[in-house]
UniProtKB/TrEMBL annotation:
Keywords: Transferase
GO MF annotation terms: transferase activity
Keyword Transferase: yes
Taxonomic placement: Bacteria, Pseudomonadati, Pseudomonadota, Alphaproteobacteria, Sphingomonadales
Descriptive protein name: CoA transferase subunit A
Organism: Sphingomonas arantia
Pfam families for this protein: CoA_trans
Domain of life: Bacteria
Positions in coiled-coil regions: none
Length: 233
């Protein structure tokens, strides 16, 4: 099975549909599947529910899909650097399901492992627990959280072989690793593709069985959320 596609648009061909749920890797602007996000923006797919740690920043990352009004709902844990996100949420244009970061990671991991739900103490007695089942274990309250399973996962890796085995580089692993398992259609973009057998099996972060389509996204520009420099003396 050939997993290699010439570009992001081709890799997403026949996959996108209005109203779908997408799991997107990345943390801030680190490890973000930029080419795939651009292809979704160009396709004009609307009514999206996106599970991601955050929605990028204004005009970058998932912020591009917010700007084009393609996202209907965000399931995320941090949204503080995106003014368009704030504006759409406060005006009622965007539905938001806030989720503690560790809980979000576990919800995605659980979805990938076929676990429909789990109990956690995180969020008990707060707005996070509203409308959810609360159960006592050893005299302590725990809230039920549902696993997340998407129609599509979009992730960014550092290096892959032609079979789709993936390696992430340092913190760019972030949410990309669990997101890769949380759907039956995972599309990955990477900085380098090497022949099968070139990667150390012990270094593989995501086995190729999870990756259905693969695209070479390089070269990339290094995006910086906050540039902090000291004053000249």
């Amino acid at each position: 099975m050939n997993k290699l596609y010439p570009d992001a648009a081709a890799a997403l061909s026949g996959v996108l549909f209005d109203g779908m749920t997408i799991c997107a890797g990345g943390f801030g602007l680190c490890g973000v599947p930029e080419r795939l996000i651009d292809a979704i923006a160009a396709a004009g797919t609307t009514g999206l529910t996106v599970a991601s740690n955050n929605a990028g920043i204004d005009g970058e990352g998932l912020g591009k899909l917010l700007r084009t009004r393609q996202i209907k709902k965000m399931i995320s844990s941090y949204v503080g650097e995106n003014k368009e996100f704030e504006r759409q949420y406060l005006s009622g244009e965007l539905e938001v399901e806030f989720c503690p970061q560790g809980t979000l990671a576990e919800r995605v991991r659980a979805g990938g492992a076929g676990i429909p739900g789990f109990y956690t103490k995180t969020g008990v007695g707060t707005l996070v627990a509203e409308g959810k089942e609360v159960k006592l274990f050893d005299g302590q309250e725990y809230v039920l959280e549902r696993g997340i399973r998407a129609d599509l996962s979009i992730i960014k890796g550092w290096k892959a072989d032609e079979a789709g085995n993936l390696i992430f580089r340092k913190t760019a692993r972030n949410f990309n690793q669990p997101m890769a398992t949380a759907s039956s259609m995972t599309v990955a973009e990477v900085e380098e593709i090497v022949p099968v057998g070139s990667l150390d099996p012990d270094a593989i972060h995501v086995p190729g069985i999870y990756v259905k389509r693969l695209v070479l996204g390089a070269p990339y520009d290094k995006r910086i959320e906050f540039r902090t420099v000291r004053e000249r003396v």
